[in-house]
Design goal:
The chain is an all-alpha fold. Helices cover 69% and strands 0% of the residues. The radius of gyration is 16 Å and the shape is rod-shaped.
Length: 65
């Protein structure tokens, strides 16, 4: 059994980590699908999609505290 979190400290749960990763993966997949539909391709679409997915995943992870 783990010790309780100190008073005033946020405890990060596994659910926010999994939710952030799943949301990031979904954002990246949708980004690639929209880029392909619009005719954009190459490394630029992939890298910008990864950056957007990472930002959204980070936001979900932090906001879910």
């Amino acid at each position: 059994m783990s010790a309780p979190a100190p008073r005033g400290a946020a405890k990060r749960g596994r659910a926010s980590l999994i939710g952030g990763l799943a949301t990031g993966a979904a954002v990246w997949a949708l980004w690639i699908a929209v880029a392909a539909r619009l005719g954009w391709g190459g490394a630029g679409a992939v890298v910008s999609g990864l950056a957007a997915a990472a930002a959204v995943a980070f936001w979900v992870r932090i906001a879910d505290l």
